[in-house]
Design brief:
Elements: E1 5-11, E2 44-49, H1 61-70, H2 74-78, H3 88-97, H4 99-105, E3 110-112, E4 115-116, H5 130-136, E5 143-144, H6 145-149, H7 161-165, H8 175-188, E6 191-196, H9 198-205, H10 208-229, E7 234-239, E8 258-263, H11 280-287
């Protein structure tokens, strides 16, 4: 069976903000990033996704990412938004309902493109991230810096500058070079996930120059990924877990919707589209025509 293929770009802390570049750093690239004004983009379609999920307070990473990668309303289940790393209850949900687990059960070949430092990222002194638990639950191993050097993985900092600054042996890449590596991986798998979280870190720092640099490099990277995969039979989609970088001068997360974006001309119907974070996993499984066997609670 010739299955469809998808590359999901998960960008941490990126919501729908104002169309004013003075208020929203993303608005400096109006052709690429959607805003609350709803203007059309150049070659992209999008829709807003609710990241609050019916729970008061600011959306947070642990619950938002769990909802995004399982389809379970994690904030409602916990009765709150949980920041940082997943709790034991969230890990249990990820072990049962992770998108990677379900893709494997349905016969789809899925991969996480991010490079991990071994052993400090794979067996850290602290807790693992949501995406790490989501992959580990499926029995897959993590890509390493050896994979990165061989052009078979991409660091969360796709330029690799942070690795180089910390003394690791890694090539420095332009956003376009990293996009080429990621596009090649996406062609080889039914589903590929890539996570980038420097947007959220930059927004928390409040450093305007750093935020502008991260947005500029991310914009180049996303455009290059799209261009590399145009006509390749791989649907590129981009979304986030909560807002943050779209509000200049605000270091906290926001309650803004997050975008679900994809290039025009998918070649197959995408409707019905999800309305919130919990709808993304069912949407992916349906688009990939991947059977989703019942799971026991």
């Amino acid at each position: 069976m010739n299955r469809r293929r998808m590359l999901m770009l998960f960008v941490d802390g990126l919501g729908l903000g104002s169309g004013d570049p003075a208020a929203n750093p993303l608005a400096a690239h109006p052709d690429l990033w959607p805003t609350q004004a709803g203007a059309a983009l150049d070659g992209w379609s999008w829709r807003p996704l609710d990241a609050c999920l019916g729970v008061e307070g600011l959306p947070q990473s642990a619950t938002g990412q769990t909802a995004l990668l399982t389809g379970v309303n994690a904030p409602r289940l916990l009765g709150k938004h949980l920041p940082g790393f997943p709790s034991r209850r969230l890990v249990e949900i990820l072990e049962r309902d992770s998108l990677f687990v379900r893709l494997k059960a349905g016969g789809c070949q899925a991969t996480f493109a991010n490079a991990y430092r071994h052993p400090e990222d794979v067996n850290p002194a602290g807790r693992l991230s949501v995406t790490s638990h989501a992959l580990r639950a499926s029995g897959q191993t993590f890509r390493s810096l050896e994979h990165l050097r061989a052009g078979q993985a991409v660091c969360h900092d796709f330029t690799n500058r942070l690795l180089i600054e910390r003394g690791y042996d890694a090539p420095e890449w332009t956003p376009e070079q990293a996009a080429a590596v990621l596009a090649d991986l996406a062609r080889e798998h039914h589903f590929t996930l890539y996570e980038h979280f420097l947007t959220d870190m930059a927004a928390h720092s409040g450093d305007g120059a750093e935020i502008a640099r991260r947005v500029e490099e991310l914009s180049r990277f996303v455009r290059a990924v799209r261009d590399r995969l145009r006509g390749a039979g791989v649907l590129v989609a981009l979304t986030s877990d909560h807002g943050n970088i779209e509000e200049a001068g605000v270091r906290t997360h926001t309650r803004n919707p997050v975008p679900l974006m994809w290039p025009d001309g998918a070649g197959f119907p995408l409707d019905p589209l999800p309305e919130d974070l919990t709808g993304v996993v069912p949407w992916i499984l349906r688009l990939l025509e991947c059977p989703d066997p019942p799971r026991h609670p």
